[in-house]
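Re: your question about ArsA family ATPase

S., sorry for the slow reply, the queue was backed up all week. Below is exactly what I fed in.
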Amino acid sequence: MSRLQVVSGKGGTGKTTVAAALALALATEGKRTLLVEVEGRQGIAQLFETEALPYEERKIAVASGGGEVFALAIDAERALLDYLQMFYKLGSAGRALKKIGAIDFATTIAPGVRDVLLTGKACEAVRRRDRQGRYVYDYVVMDAPPTGRITRFLNVNDEVAGLARIGPIHNQAQAVMRVLKSPQTAVHLVTLLEEMPVQETADGVAELREADLPVGKVIVNMVRPHLLDEEAVRDASDGRRPEIAQTLARAGFTAADDLVTPLLEQAAEHAQRVGLEREQRRVLTAMDLGAYELPMLSEGVELAGLYRLARELRKQGAGS
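Result:
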């Protein structure tokens, strides 16, 4: 099982929710998971109903079996200060640069620098060991940028290593890419059973493969139940209107004839949706990747819902 689990997806597919549920699923049986946020939206804090995350690793949940979930909202400015101290011993100088705005300038004017810092901090957490030589975290789950820029985000260190041929920047970039392009990493893509998210997922898989980045699973989120089987859908046709009306009348419904038309319309809409979803499933199957499926939560996503999604992921093999 890959120790760095990167979760991406088209906007609106629920990738942050999926990343949080995956962190909970992986933390079962006494394991420790670090859930990393890189986009500065504090989405993780909202999901776990806790205060805004500082730039430090903080325990935010206990999983079934006693496992623990920690979270970290990576701040690019603070990460750059860490980087300057780690490689150049410029702790006080770095703080002075921050005061005059140079740190903010560097991370804003050069998005590539920002991505290097974010990925570098996550990979450092993957590699970190305690005094006994054990990994501090069994898994690191990254709530990553959307599918449209995930390949560029993860591959930026490759470009940096090529530009800086020697020195600590080159070495750091290479160390990060050794993690990101190894079996230690899996990049999961979250989608819905709709045409645009599925197409963006297909494009994302192709880009990741072309960049030699390890593609993990497709995670189909917000799957709605099929309320009617195929036989019931076929029966709900205009040719069966009298029979449907009689059935409703026998069941005690008044004005049964008036109910037939809206029932048939709903059945037709349901059948159309099922057909479109099957078509998108065929597209996903053609990608030759394993898949997880998560149900739509009728009550909305709250803390109890996250634990339910985590159980679903465990049932389907996440963490095993």
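Confidence is low (pLDDT under 50) at residues 96-103, 105-109. The domain at 4-224+296-315 is CATH 3.40.50.300 (Rossmann fold).

Happy to talk it through on Thursday.
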